[in-house]
Specification:
five-stranded antiparallel sheet, 51% strand, 0% helix, mainly beta
Length: 196
């Protein structure tokens, strides 16, 4: 690891959404919770400098949203998060310049502990819902008629505060970290791999 000291940086925050944008060759950061409250700002980092981006439209201020890139189109997708009214389940796209609301049927996961992932091999966006206490992790994909539940082989117990990434061969989701749903003081899985 090497600590960088760019001349300009985003304000300090918790729960920001961030991912690598291969088409722009930069990290993209959105939102989070800072000293001024919930944020709706967008920043780009090229490996040397941070640059604030000023889109004409942006998702509402939030924290704990998910941000992933869809390789086919190069667009970034932002899903969910939380604001002061509760859990958000909206879906937005980023084209490198501006945000656009994605017209979708109501999203399935109304849990604050849901993550968005790109599943290579299947070439689909999926939402991994941490589930309710006593239940299991659920997986949903965007199909032609909206969100569809898909089975998962040996789905882990319900989790909170986890991250997820897709793996291609065979189509798998890798969950990292987290703790048992509804039990913040407990440990969950350090890593879990399951097939979809």
């Amino acid at each position: 690891w090497q600590q960088l000291t760019p001349a300009v940086s985003p304000p300090a925050r918790l729960g920001a959404a961030m991912t690598w944008d291969a088409s722009q060759q930069a990290l993209v950061l959105f939102g989070g919770w800072g000293d001024a409250g919930l944020l709706d700002d967008t920043w780009r980092f090229d490996g040397v400098q941070w640059q604030p981006v000023t889109p004409t439209l942006a998702p509402s201020p939030r924290w704990n949203a998910s941000l992933v890139q869809e390789p086919r189109s190069g667009r970034l997708w932002l899903y969910g998060g939380e604001d002061f009214t509760g859990t958000l389940t909206d879906l937005w796209t980023w084209d490198g310049t501006d945000w656009e609301f994605a017209e979708q049927v109501p999203l399935p996961a109304e849990d604050t502990h849901s993550r968005l992932a790109w599943l290579p091999g299947v070439e689909e966006l999926v939402v991994v819902d941490g589930g309710k206490p006593g239940g299991n992790v659920e997986v949903w994909r965007i199909g032609p008629s909206g969100w569809q539940a898909i089975g998962a082989d040996r789905s882990p117990m319900a989790l909170e505060n986890f991250e997820v990434v897709g793996h291609a061969l065979p189509p798998q989701l890798l969950l990292v970290g987290g703790h048992a749903a509804g039990e913040p003081g407990t440990s969950g899985v350090s890593m879990a791999l399951f097939y979809v």
